[in-house]
Amino acid sequence: MTFWSFFGIIYLLNSKSVKVSNTTITINSNNAAGIAFGGNQTNNTLYNVNIRTNGSNAPALNVSGNYVNFTMFNSILNAASTNDIYIGNNSIKGEWNLTNVTFVDILFSVGANGTLNVHWYLDVYVNYTNGTQVSGANVTIRDKDNNSILQTFTNPNGFIKTTNILEYAQT
Question: What is the Cα–Cα distance from 29 to 63, expressed in whole angstroms?
Answer without folding.
Answer: 18
